[in-house]
């Protein structure tokens, strides 16, 4: 489990991002804004400064960006799905924002984050769908701006709402999406409790949590702080992580072993069906600090010709921190006797895919050092 809720605070594992010069590559940014009456002053600042925010995103992304806009009070409203290069549209919509006030201080912030992270369509208490999807090769960020505790759609705050917020953070982490939390403190709502929730969102996803009233400047600062790391799995012994690579051969860093100690990769292994064995994945770290993400494991009977993702089945996933020098990750697996291929994908908010994944595995492996594969025949034990 990535994080646990204790009262109104989260205990989180991944480190927070550290500032550096903006060089974000392609960007997908979802602005998730509280539009209730207590946010009027903060929203006025954002309305006045939205052009600076969108210009900063445009510059940091080199012009390759999409901005989504979701607002909430007791309900969620999708104002804009992801659209390429939509600075002008966002600059036009944000100054018009207003909304009904909630009858109580808790608001549907957790549900709005779920909408953004999970790209949810129209549902009860939500108008508009956010279904364009996040790009695998983009730096992905949700920017949550609120002064209230999460309250779901019932305008009440309790343990279930903290659990919902935690689940939204977990879903973001699993997808390589960072949540940046911007908190304009409101004395009428417990600012310490709200601050703890906001810090939990950010800390559990590698994002940044900030407090203050100059909302436009704060959003610009967090969304263009793109701490980049580069963890990878080699495609060949001489692979140093270049993207795109020269080959898409079988990885020397994927091995199927009878125990939790690394064994040399082999083309064939023996194991009775259902026997617990272990897939070992050696990860390298090319720099940029500790890389935090999720290592996902898949198998297919179609090998290098298997269409992605239709002909691959996920069989494991584990949150991982990869320090300088690298790390070996061990995933348990109930063996299946077959001639099959294993695929690993590294999903990280600070280390997105270099190129958008297509249906061809060879292209994905060659283009992205986050993706590697190996073919292994599993034979039954003799006798």
Can you offer a commentary on this structure?
A 7-stranded mixed beta sheet has the order 6-5-4-3-7-8-9, sandwiched between helices. It has a 5-stranded mixed beta sheet with strand order 12-18-17-14-15, covered by helices on one side. With 383 residues, it is of the alpha/beta class. The protein is 22% helix and 30% strand. Mean pLDDT is 89; it is low at 1-22. It folds into 2 domains: 3-223, von Willebrand factor, type A domain (Rossmann fold, 3-Layer(aba) Sandwich); 231-379, Immunoglobulins (Immunoglobulin-like), CATH 2.60.40. It is elongated. The protein is built from 7 helices and 18 strands. The two termini are 40 Å apart. Helix 1 runs parallel beside helix 6 (215-223), helix 3 (109-118) runs parallel beside helix 4 and helix 4 packs parallel to helix 5 (191-203). The protein has helices at residues 40-60, 87-93, 109-118, 159-174, 191-203, 215-223, 361-367; strands spanning 3-6, 9-12, 27-34, 65-72, 76-80, 126-127, 139-145, 177-183, 209-211, 231-232, 254-257, 268-270, 276-285, 291-300, 313-322, 327-334, 338-347, 371-379. The longest helix has 21 residues, at 40-60.
């Amino acid at each position: 489990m990535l994080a646990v809720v204790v009262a109104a605070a989260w205990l989180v594992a991944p480190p927070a991002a550290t500032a550096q010069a903006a060089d974000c590559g392609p960007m997908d940014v979802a602005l998730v804004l509280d539009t209730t009456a207590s946010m009027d002053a903060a929203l006025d600042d954002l309305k006045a400064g939205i052009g600076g925010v969108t210009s900063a995103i445009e510059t940091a992304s080199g012009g390759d960006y999409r901005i989504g806009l979701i607002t909430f009070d007791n309900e969620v409203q999708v104002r804009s799905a992801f659209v390429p290069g939509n600075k002008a549209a966002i600059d036009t919509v944000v100054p018009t924002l207003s909304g009904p006030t909630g009858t109580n201080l808790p608001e549907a912030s957790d549900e709005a984050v779920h909408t953004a992270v999970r790209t949810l369509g129209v549902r009860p208490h939500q108008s508009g769908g956010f279904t364009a999807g996040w790009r695998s090769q983009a730096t992905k960020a949700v920017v949550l701006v609120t002064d209230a505790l999460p309250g779901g759609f019932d305008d009440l705050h309790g343990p279930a709402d903290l659990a919902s917020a935690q689940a939204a953070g977990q879903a973001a982490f699993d997808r390589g999406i960072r949540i940046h939390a911007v908190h304009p403190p409101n004395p009428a709502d417990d600012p310490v409790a709200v601050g703890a929730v906001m810090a939990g969102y950010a800390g559990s996803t590698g994002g940044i949590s900030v407090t203050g009233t100059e909302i436009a400047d704060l959003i610009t600062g967090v969304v263009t702080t793109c701490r980049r790391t580069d963890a990878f799995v080699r495609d060949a012994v001489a692979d140093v992580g270049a993207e795109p690579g020269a080959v898409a051969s079988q990885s020397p860093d994927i091995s199927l072993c009878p125990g939790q100690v690394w064994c040399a990769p082999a083309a064939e292994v023996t194991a009775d069906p259902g026997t617990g064995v272990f897939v070992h994945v050696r990860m390298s770290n090319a720099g940029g600090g500790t890389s935090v993400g999720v290592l996902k494991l898949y198998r297919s009977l179609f090998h290098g010709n298997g269409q992605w993702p239709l002909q691959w089945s996920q069989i494991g996933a584990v949150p991982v921190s990869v320090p300088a020098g690298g790390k070996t990750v061990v995933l348990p697996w109930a063996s299946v006797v077959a001639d099959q291929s294993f695929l690993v994908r590294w999903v990280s908010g600070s280390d997105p895919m270099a190129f958008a994944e297509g249906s061809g595995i060879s292209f994905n492996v060659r283009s992205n050092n986050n993706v590697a594969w190996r073919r292994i025949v599993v034979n039954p034990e003799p006798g």
